Amino acid sequence: MDSILIAMVLALLIPIYEAWQDDDIWQKMLAFASIAAKTSIIMLVISALRDDWSIGVVAVIVLSVGEAGLMLLAHLIKRMNQA
């Protein structure tokens, strides 16, 4: 099971590198959305391994609400650039 978590953390490093490398705001927003989704999936796996569903509930909230907040921020940035 440790190899699965290591692979998940390595997959998390790919969008971090992309956000660090690119200056385009939309690419950074996509990378951060990917980081948030992957982090919540890692939290769900850890909660299942530990049999601690309070961590799982937090991960589901982060997965559902975190993406909505990020999309709202992207929409605000788009509107500010149009004005």
What descriptors fit this protein?
3 helices; single chain; 0% strand; 83 residues; mainly alpha; flat
**What is Rg?**
15 Å
What portion of the residues fall into strands of 2 or more residues? under 5%
Q: Which blocks of ≥5 consecutive residues have pLDDT under 50?
A: none
The ordered H/E elements are: HHH
* Total strand segments: 0
The largest pleated sheet is described as:
none
Helix amount, in percent? over 70%
Q: What is the global morphology?
A: flat
Q: Give the CA-CA distance, first to last residue.
A: 50 Å
Mean pLDDT across the residues is 80
Structural class call reads mainly alpha
The number of helical segments is 3
Kindly describe this structure.
By secondary structure, the protein is mainly α. It contains three helices and no strands. It has helices at 2-21, 25-50, 53-82. It starts with a helix and ends with a helix.
List the helices and strands and how they pair.
Layout (H helix, E strand, L loop, with lengths): L1 H20 L3 H26 L2 H30 L1
Helix pairs in contact: 1-2, 2-3
